[in-house]
Amino acid sequence: MKIVLALAPVWESTTPPLSLAFLKSNIANAGFDVFCIDFSVQFRPIMVSAMGDVAAEEYIASHPELYKNWAKQIANQNPDVVGFSILMSNIKNTALLAQAVRDLLPNVTIVSGGPSLTRENMKYIKYAFRFSDVILEGEGEIPFAELLKCLSAKGDITKLKQLWLKDEKGNISYTGTAPLHPIDNFIFPDFRDFDPNDYPVKNKLPLLFSRGCILNCNYCENKWNHLTQRSRSGKNVFDELKRNVTEYGMKEYIFNDDSLISSKTMRQMEDYSDLVLAEGLVMPWHVYGTRVERLLTDQFVAKLRKTGMYRVSLGIESFSSKVQKEMGKSSRYDDADKCARLFGGNGIKTETWIIYGYPTETDAEFFETLNWFIKNPKVLSHVTANTFGPNAKYQHDKPGVIRYLSNNAWNWSGPESTLEKRKQRFLLLADVLEDLRKSSQGNFTFHIGDPYYVKYFNTFTRQDKRFLLDSWEKLEGTYVEKNAVKKLLLNIGWLSDKKPVTMIDTHGVDETDELNTDDNLNLIEKHEISLITTTTIKEVLLDTTPIETIIETLFHNLSRELYEVQGLEDEAVNQKKLLYRAKIDELTHLLVNDLEARVLHGIIYRENPKLIIKRFDSSEANEIAKDIKIDLLPKIRKLETELIHAKS
Ligand code: B12
Ligand code: SF4
């Protein structure tokens, strides 16, 4: 049986992907012929110009030649099974690619896996079933091999564990969890299918010392993927290092661990370091992330430095003990301060992540973090600062603490964190980081994202600030416009003011909302939500724009949005969409061309909201008008006068 494993963009492929490499070696070991393709690295040169995930998604969706070409690369291998590795940032592109693969290979079995596909993220699992036959939850090395064996023997896969399956009626069920395997038992990752020349640093490879983390911070999905931290033995990691040097000519590496250093790994890391030093396999290495660990000693860090460690990324997040505690961290101010100094003091470039605007972070607590930066200008070499985003994990662990004020990802409020406060804190933090950068003579850099998710800034000059403030103003304007549209929709009877109304912005919003197109369509049909992005209808409330223009813009956008929220839905959804579009066209036509209907939809609704039950049929509305004895003529005259007045 032939298997192709693929990773679709967008994923910043700074090294070959460990997920595919681990899966390949372990299923090949079970007797299968496997080939890996990293499409995200093929897309890398384009991604840079396409600027990030959303833009990249739009780019790929509008360039079918791209994903059709990727599908051909898969089909050329003539696989029986294709395995896709799914992340939040590539799920939509994977959907396009998978459909193109199915077009070429109708009998292929598609299996999906990856860190997004856990039961807490059912939206992703449902979405992935649009293109997958089987979904595997959790670590794949052993269960994927078992699944392939079962498929090739035409066995009963419902007996296997860790699988999500969909029956003929569309019901989704899980076959159950299985115990985790010791990582030392896995075959070392196989990178032979990846061309080192495709990656930014040619002889750099990823290594993994452990999986998972001992903590359970309330905004981190780590716990949904791994129960706790499991370490490999130092000897096992060292053997892989040696193999990488001899077989791949590796000259640099990164530990891709979630949180490298902890009570679960320190002893093993000592063993590893002793072996590295004894055998002289010293080379530059750095770490994707590690939390603040109280057990750290100067001696331990100095030893790591000797083995080649040159950079560390610390998950400090806040220098306020109270905020750290609320987040679920075990560290406090003193630990964070000590940890940063230990690495910095040993000549290791020390970077940290910072979160501003945590829901309960008070001004005073924010200033504790800010003041640490002001008082310690020389300890860190880099800071990545992000506004807090109340993700699925946070809302699961801390229900009811924050409230979304609209469907815009940035528009939420917590007990101590309002958008206004986040804006102020961003500006203060960005100014301080910019001062540090300027005075550091090249020894300090930063990467800070604003609370509206406009952009990441590596500088914060006057020009950057002006650009940002302008962007914020525009966004706030759009928000006002959207509220105006909402009112217009209410007036024409499209929405009911009895039900909660949510506006969905299909770009740049929490992707999970966007994914569930079926639910969105149902909600729209029940008039609970509206799907709108940008319109220029600020004047609606002021009645200064001709109603025709407003309606045309509005419905044009509405139908376009519905059309664009695509992916590869099944036939039923497509039919529904077509039907819905037809209804919109019908309504647009009525409202634009039929003055009477417009009056009925607009004015009658205002006068007697309860009576407008059906909005698509002007004759029925006429009946209603007769029933309640409304004399239409004066209303029409009034509207005409308004229109003439507006036009003049
Ligand atoms: C290293 C890393 C990076 C590096 C990548 C370097 C590189 N090229 O290797 C860098 C710094 C670039 C990075 C960036 C980002 N990352 Co990152 N990253 C990681 C990290 C720590 C390790 C990835 C890894 O190597 N894992 C080891 C492999 C073996 O594990 P795995 O991928 O989960 O695969 C296993 C299973 O999931 C399963 N599986 C996976 N695929 C498949 C496929 C099939 C068919 C099957 C059956 C099974 C299966 O089997 C595998 C083996 O057991 C993970 C966290 C983690 N521990 O996974 C986050 C993680 C992948 N990153 C994450 C995020 C959010 C990001 C960023 C968006 C962060 C940001 N805000 O900028 C960016 C992405 C930017 C972009 N657009 O690409 C999230 C993804 C969330 C999600 N649900 O999709 C993760 C999970 C961290 C987290 N918990 O939030 N990241
Ligand atoms: S310490 Fe880091 S990796 Fe561990 S749970 Fe917290 S945020 Fe996640």
Set out the fold topology.
Elements: E1 2-7, H1 18-29, E2 33-38, H2 39-50, H3 52-61, H4 64-75, E3 81-85, H5 91-104, E4 109-113, H6 122-128, E5 134-136, H7 141-152, E6 163-166, E7 172-174, E8 204-207, E9 210-211, H8 222-225, E10 230-231, H9 234-248, E11 252-255, H10 266-279, E12 285-290, H11 298-307, E13 309-317, H12 321-327, H13 333-345, E14 349-356, H14 363-375, E15 382-387, H15 392-397, E16 403-404, E17 412-413, H16 419-439, E18 445-449, E19 456-457, H17 462-491, E20 502-504, H18 511-515, H19 517-525, E21 529-531, H20 547-564, H21 571-593, H22 595-607, H23 618-627, H24 632-647
Parallel strand pairs: 1-2, 1-3, 3-4, 4-5, 8-11, 11-12, 12-13, 13-14, 14-15, 15-18, 20-21
Antiparallel strand pairs: 5-6, 6-7, 9-10, 16-17, 18-19
Helix pairs in contact: 1-7, 2-3, 4-5, 9-10, 10-11, 14-16, 20-21, 21-22, 22-23, 22-24
This protein binds cobalamin and iron/sulfur cluster.
The site of iron/sulfur cluster has 10 residues, from loops.
Q: Work out the radius of gyration.
A: 28 Å
Structural class: alpha/beta
The percentage helix is: 40-55%
* Bound chemical compounds: cobalamin, iron/sulfur cluster
pLDDT average, as an integer? 81
Q: Hey, roughly how much beta strand do the residues contain?
A: 5-15%
What this model shows, in words?
- By secondary structure, the protein is α/β, with parallel strands linked by helices.
- Helix content is 47%, strand content 14%.
- It has 24 helices and 21 strands.
- The strands form five sheets. It has an eight-stranded mixed β-sheet with strand order 8-11-12-13-14-15-18-19.
- Helix 14 (363-375) packs parallel to helix 16 (419-439).
- It binds cobalamin (B12) and iron/sulfur cluster (SF4).
- Iron/sulfur cluster binds at residues 213, 215-217, 220, 222, 258-259, 291, 315.
